[in-house]
Amino acid sequence: MQPRNMSMSGVVDLAAVKAAQEARSKAEQARAEAARQGGAGAVSPADLVIDVDEAGFERDVLQRSAEVPVVIDFWAEWCQPCKQLSPVLERLAVEYDGRFLLAKIDVDANQMLMQQFGVQGIPAVFAVVAGQALPLFQGAAAEQQIRQTLDQLVQVAEQRFGLTGLTVDPDAQPGAVVEREVPAGPYDALLEAAVQALDAGDLGGAIQAYKNVLADDPANTEANLGLAQAELLQRVQGADPQRVRKEAAEKPGDVEAQIAAADLDLVGGHVEDAFGRLIETVQRTVGDDRDAVRRRLLELFEVVGPEDPRVIGARRALARALF
Asked: How far is CA 73 from CA 63, 143, 159, 167, in A?
C-alpha cells in the first residue's frame, strides 16, 4: 500500500513517483534475496572501504547499492588532492558505521568507468543509490561540508529507498558475515489507519499513525513518505498565504520566513520556486541557520521524490551552494 498524495496535485510528478516506487521495490527484492543467501549480515569495519575495478563494478557497486548507499572515490596515485581527500572519506566510512560503503576507483586502471560517470577531473566523488548514480562533489573539500553531503545522502537513501545500510560488528573478521535480525512487519493496518485519518482531515492522527510505524521500523519507505507529506500539509494548515509571502519578501534574511514561504510554494505546485528560495537562503546563511534551511530542503525533496528532474537539479544546486 502506498501513501496518497493528499490533494497535492501539481506537486508530485506521477512518473517520478512510479520510478521511485520501482527502484524501492527492486532494492527490497535485492535485500530479501541477500538475506535468504545469508549475505545481509554484519560486516567488519574493514569491509566498509573497498577497491573496485571494471570487472567487479556490477557486483561491488550496483548490486550493493540495493542495500547501502555506495560512495565512489575516483582517485589516482599521482593526484595530490586525492591523497588529502581519500583518508578523510575512509575515516568517515568507518565513523558512519555502515550507513554508506566507500568504493575507491583508480582512474588510471579503470578509464571506462571514469568515462561512464563523466568524470572531468579528480578527485571526484559520486554516489550510487538503488542502482542510480548521483554526483556529490569534485575536488578537495572541508570535512564539515563532506559531512553535510553524506548526511543528505544517507537521509535520502533511508527515507526514500529504505536503505538502512550495513550492520557493523567490530569483532567480525573481514569478509565474514553475521546473521542479523530482520525488522518486524507488515504494517498494512497502521498505514491504512493513516490514510483513513487523512481522508477524515485529521492530519495529527495521520502523523501519529505514520510515527507508530516508524517507531518499530524507522526505514519504512511508505511511512516516511506519508509522514513528510502529512507534516508539510499540517505546517501550512491555517497559514495566511498573503501574510507569509509578504513577510518573506520584506525579510529575505529571515530563515523562518523563507522556510514558511517555501512550504506554501510547494503545496501550491511551485516546486522550482520553493527549491530556489531555500537554495538562495542557504547561500546567505551560515551555521545553525544554514543547517535548518538545508534540512527543510531535504524534507521537501522527499515530498516531491528523488527521481523528479526538479529535485535532481536542485540537489546539484544545493551541493554547489554548500561547497
From this structure: 17, 15, 24, 22
The residue annotated as part of the active site, out of 70, 79, 128, 203, is 79
Residue 276 a catalytic site member:
no
Whole-number Å distance between alpha carbons of 116 and 119: 8
Distance (Å, rounded) from C-alpha 98 to C-alpha 20? 23
Q: Which three cell numbers stand for residue 89?
A: 572519506
Question: Beta partners for 102?
Answer: 49, 71
Residue whose C-alpha is closest to residue 255's, from 298, 287, 292, 228: 292
Is 82 considered catalytic here?
yes
Strand order in the sheet with 70-75: 49-51, 101-106, 70-75, 124-129, 132-138
d(CA 219, CA 144): 25
pTM over 0.85: no
- Within 13 Å and on the Cβ side, how many CA atoms surround 76? 14
Tens place of pLDDT for every residue, the chain, 323 residues?
Answer: 333 333 333 333 333 334 444 445 555 555 455 444 444 468 889 999 999 999 889 889 988 888 899 999 999 999 999 999 999 999 999 999 999 999 999 999 999 899 888 898 999 999 998 777 889 998 888 999 999 999 999 988 887 777 888 888 888 778 755 444 444 456 777 888 888 888 888 888 889 988 888 887 777 778 888 888 899 999 999 899 999 999 999 999 899 999 999 999 999 999 999 999 999 999 999 888 988 999 899 889 888 877 778 888 888 888 888 76
From 48, 72, 82, 282, active-site residue: 82
